[in-house]
Amino acid sequence: MRYILKKVQIICPLSSHHEKVRDILIEDGIIQQIESEIDVKDAVVIHHNHAKVSLGWVDVFAHFCDPGEEYKENLSSGSHAALAGGFTDVFLIPNTNPSIDSKTKIEYLKQASNLINLYPIGAISQRMEGKQLAEMYDMKLSGAIGFSDGLMPVQNSGLLLKALQYVKTFDGTIIQMPDDKAISQFGLMHEGEVSTRLGLTAKPAIAESLQVTRDIELAAYTNSKIHFTGISTRRSIELIREAKQKGLKVTCSINPLHLIFTDENLNTYDSMYKVNPPFRSHDDVTALLAGIHDGTIDCFASHHMPQDWDAKRCEFEYAKAGNINIQTIFQTLLLSNQIDISTIIRMLSVTPRNIFNLNAQNIEVGKDACLTVFQDDIEFEYNLKNNQSLSSNSPFLERKLKGKIVAVLNNKRVHLYE
Which CATH number does the domain housing residue 33 bear? Predict the structure, then answer.
């Protein structure tokens, strides 16, 4: 079947048509024409006012809970949520049951890759116990996009050193969500005035920056690649900025929710705002925005973390951390109202592909149609009816949000959204 994207503005700095309004003809998943006007019989026309198109978006850190907790999310529901959020490529963290620490488990996830492109992140350590290296090379050959212990970042310096040395042999990347558990283990929220007032055990910012410092030193020593995700503090941004200025192979991503919410949102003890890393101070939010504008922050990660009703509707102390976020990243970024659309799209589509050496994509004739079509000036209501996740732990449910996904094209399929 043939499709025409009618009068779409192309947002793709790699394309010769960047920022131009064009018609795009797609047949059998391939871009056939890009012209000012295309009129072809028997083609399905996709036309929305002020629509824009970019390369398909990439999420570098998401939890689909499969295998082990499919009642929270599974590969099908997670893929549908990702598509509805504009994503064609998603990196899956290894914190499943059993954990993704061998080639057979990588292959299980890769075989499920259909609606979207699923990229498993292989565990650094066996069973993610932080003691012995997992079968990293075998996992790489089977399709692991990177290596991480995900929600249980490696605490042992010697083990992380070995991992960095090991992945260097095949140009692999270590992914760390920096958190010194010896400092933050029992913390429920960011340490500051609000935590003192609420009487909640806190996670000091130094728990994050201390591990960033250690891991940068190890990356420098090994001359290997490390990607930090879930960066949330001013000091961490400063450290990563300095590392980049020294030419170290350091990159990072943030959860866009950390641009919107702060520790003050926990004043009502609402567990929807209990996340890891925790929402920080206004000063930290300012630092994150500055890191986006000067290029210190490379890309975004949803940290999509489905939780069932019981895990969230209980006392704050016992509630599980995390939000579903993969379907609303774009709207979250627009809510911040401080990042231009070209920067948002570059960080969602181009930069993560460069960091993790994904197959080269571009919006040019002859290229695969791996595309996201969206409107940034239209509101829609995010509710239980259109929520694609099996879970509903989002602070945005039943709210009107700005920014709408029109269509996602991937793997010779076209997914349309009203």
Answer: 2.30.40.10
Q: Which residues of 79-100 are buried (b: 16+ CB within 10 A; e: fewer)?
A: bbbbbbbbbbbbbbbbbbeebb
Return d(Cα 89, Cα 188) in angstroms, integer: 32
Residue 110 phi, psi (nearest 5): -65, -35
Beta-bridge partners for 54? 372
Find out whether 54 and 38 touch, Cβ atoms under 8 Å.
no
Mean pLDDT confidence for 395-406: 96
Residue 384 lies in a domain: no
Structure tokens, 374:
């969206």
Predicted pLDDT at 62:
98
Q: Is residue 212 part of a domain?
A: yes
Domain assignment of residue 183, given as a range: 56-355
Question: Same domain, yes or no, for 108 and 251?
Answer: yes
CATH code assigned at 183: 3.20.20.140
Verdict on whether the full-model pTM lies above 0.90: yes
Q: Is residue 383 part of a domain?
A: no
What 3-state class would DSSP assign to 162?
A: helix
List phi, psi (to 5°) of 104.
Answer: -65, -35
pLDDT exceeds 90 at position 113: no
**Exposed/middle/buried for 205, CB within 10 Å: 0-12, 13-18, 19+?**
buried
CB distance 99 to 123 below 8 Å: yes
CB count within 10 Å of CB 377 equals 13
Q: Count CA atoms closer than 13 A to 14's CA, side-chain side.
A: 18
